[in-house]
Amino acid sequence: MRVDRNQLRFNQALLVVLLPLAALWDQPWLVYLLFLLMASQHAPWDLMVALKRLLRVPPAVVEEDPRPHRFARFLGAVFLGLASLFLLLGLKGVGYALALVVALLALINLAFGFCLGCFLYLHLRYARALFTGK
């Protein structure tokens, strides 16, 4: 299986730059937009991939299992979805805090190569194998 490393870094960079700006300038629409971009990964047309192509970021494809990265992106989308919901309800502190957690985890992955979502995915697989024998 193959993974585009530049796509992963591009996604992380968008989150690291735009989510703190959204909180700093109180622009919830940026959180909503990033949620839609993150949630589109299983749609026929992945909007993050489309944006990367539009900006002409070259691919850097490597042989690697994409499932941990998809799981991590799913978790990020869930957190951004919750952040969006809280922002829509007027609970800005909670909404922006959740969005900034996503930005912080993306920064850690971008800077140090540690993906918490990937880590959780692998440990959930290990736990499943332990308890089910599969």
Overview features:
mainly alpha; two-stranded antiparallel ribbon
Please provide a written account of the structure.
The protein is mainly alpha-helical. The chain has one domain. 75% of the residues lie in helices and 4% in strands. The chain contains 6 helices and 2 strands; from the N terminus they run βαααβααα. The chain has a two-stranded antiparallel ribbon with strand order 1-2. α1 packs antiparallel against α5 and α2 runs antiparallel to α4. It is globular, with a radius of gyration of 15 Å. The two termini are 21 Å apart. 28% of the residues are buried. The mean pLDDT is 95. It comes from Thermus aquaticus. InterPro entries: DUF4395, UCP030042. This is DUF4395 domain-containing protein. It holds the Pfam family DUF4395. Keywords: Membrane, Transmembrane, Transmembrane helix.
Task: Reconstruct the topology from this structure.
Layout: E1 2-4, H1 5-24, H2 28-39, H3 47-54, E2 61-63, H4 67-88, H5 92-112, H6 116-132
Antiparallel strand pairs: 1-2
Specify the helix fraction band.
over 70%
Number of DSSP strand runs: 2
Structural class: mainly alpha
> What is the count of DSSP helices, taking H or I runs of 4+ residues?
6
Distance between the termini: 21 Å
Low-confidence stretches: none
What is the 3D form? globular
How many domains make up the coordinates?
A: 1
CA-atom Rg in angstroms? 15 Å
Main sheet makeup:
2 strands, antiparallel
H/E series: EHHHEHHH
The fraction of residues in strands falls at under 5%
Return the average pLDDT rounded to an integer: 95
Q: What spatial order of strands do you see in the largest sheet?
A: 1-2
